[in-house]
Amino acid sequence: MATVVYNYFSENFGYVNNHNDVQYQRKYESFSTKDLKKSLKKLKLENGDILEIKFVAKKLRNLLNKSNTTDPNNTDSHASANIDHDSLIGKSFWGFVKRFFKKNTSSFPSFNLAECTSYFTKTLSAISPTKTFNIPSWIPKFASPQTPFNLDPPTYQEITNVIRKMKPSGSPCPLDQISIICFKRCPYLRSYLTEIIHAAWSCGVVPSEWKKACTILIHKKGETANPANF
């Protein structure tokens, strides 16, 4: 049952591959707003590629937004001092960023994976070579616990309560692309998750896949070829 559910979501949902953007950029590079409208209408009528439709629609929106901000009749372009930036950020932070900030493509890392791995391995291992934390003497010690620790694994209901408290708007992990919404709406998945947690709990071994993580490098300053600038 778990395989059927997973295959359904993996075949119908997931991340969008942007590798074809270069092809579409070349194709629609010289298109005007009018040309893009015609192309978008034609793609929709002919049930064209969904990725191409998304690209054309996004490019058209960007051109329309750009023309609106440069329009002399647009009061916002002449009254930027009257814009309530705090209110706009509160409503939609990324919407504000996309509206008022230019897209920057020069901050991506220009070093390879081997250089990145070597740098961060040395940096993180140098902080604590033994990977142990010594409690400073100025931190007061806690009293011994009075209640014995419950060694029983979490129950199905406890796991369900945790899942229900999680935000459905959270991004799924890039490693499996399984949204928390699947666990919220499918009791079968929660049952299998409970069995996995119970098995890991009883064996005392964390699954190797759960030890993996994705790191996003954010450029701070300087050359993008130096990992220390991220």
From TrEMBL:
Protein name (record): Uncharacterized protein
